Each structure stands twice: as structure tokens, then as C-alpha cells.
Amino acid sequence: METETAVPERPAALRDAFGAGDGGRSALGWEAVRAFEARYGVVLPEPYRSFVAEVADGSEQGPPDHGLLPLAALPSDWGDDRPPRDLAQPFPLTEAWLWEEDDRPEEELDALLGPVFDHGTVVLGTDGCGMYWHLVVTGAHRGHIWTITDVGALPFGAEFGHTTGASGFAGWVAHWAAGKEWFDAR
Questions:
Q1: How far is residue 85's CA from residue 39's CA, in Å, rounded to a whole number?
Q2: Region entry Disordered: which residue ranges (predicted)?
Q3: Which of 76, 72, 160, 55 is nearest to 124 (CA)?
Q4: Domain ranges of the chain
Q5: pLDDT digits (tens, 9 = 90+) for 65-91
């Protein structure tokens, strides 16, 4: 998974996956992307970076089920009582975690959960029912996609055992465009 170098063919492949003129929002352009990065102290991983600069800033069609959010937007069900998100702080996870099955005291879990939801990711969208897709922009899993729900968090990518899809934004989009179930590993 290449997250540092723009590959010229990727924006076209991503554009094809979403379908030109089918609910896509105008691309931000490079000046706006660089301004976002400067404001939040991050550099977006490729190919997502090129996608929002050159193809579209979100899309009304998926992925995920309720569409791809514009950069820095949050789903309508995110809630107003959350602390400010800090994209420059590293995303804390490197492996799946089902906190619903974690026996630690609730206060300890709550302290650990804040960074999972609010550090080092851009929220890509929701499949509803509190199931959010995140792109890690800071930390050991930079460039990986994670699904974070009310019960746990899982990385997306064949190497993690839950799906046959390739890791990263391009793999996630290709998996969706092929009409595959998210968790299709058997």
C-alpha cells in the first residue's frame, strides 16, 4: 500500500469507481487540500489526498452506504457532545479491539475510547447505526481504513483477516465498486 507517492492512474480509477457526474462533489483543488493539512498538522495519505484534490470532495453514493463525506465533515449522527477531534495525534490502534468484550472498568475504557474515535483519522462516512469508516492519517496505521462502531474497531484489508479487499483507500473503494460485502473473508 503506497501512501506517500501519487500514482497518476489512481485518480482516474477512483473517478471510474464513483461514476463521473453521479453525485460527486467538486474536487477541492490542491490549494484547499494544503490549507486543510496545514490547519490540522497532517499530510493526507495517497491516494485519498489526490482524490479530494482532483476528483471529488465526497460523493452522495458510497462507499459507505450513506455516501462518502466531504473532507473534515462528520456524519449527522456523530453527536454534538464529543470533544474536538485532533487529527495530528496518532490513531492509537494497530489491531482489532472489541471493547464490548473488554473487562476493564468503564472509566478506564472511556479514557481509552476517546482517542480511538477522535485522534488521527478522517471520518469517511457511515453505514448507519453508529458504524463509521475512518481513514488513518497519523500513526502506525497511516493510510489504512478502519470501521469503528459502538462495540469495537476493525482494520480493513485482507492481511487482517476480515475481508478479501486490499488495504487503503483505493482497495476499500475497489472492494465496494465490485459489489462485495465488507466482511467477505471466510
A1: 13
A2: 1-22
A3: 72
A4: 9-177
A5: 889 999 999 998 888 888 889 999 999
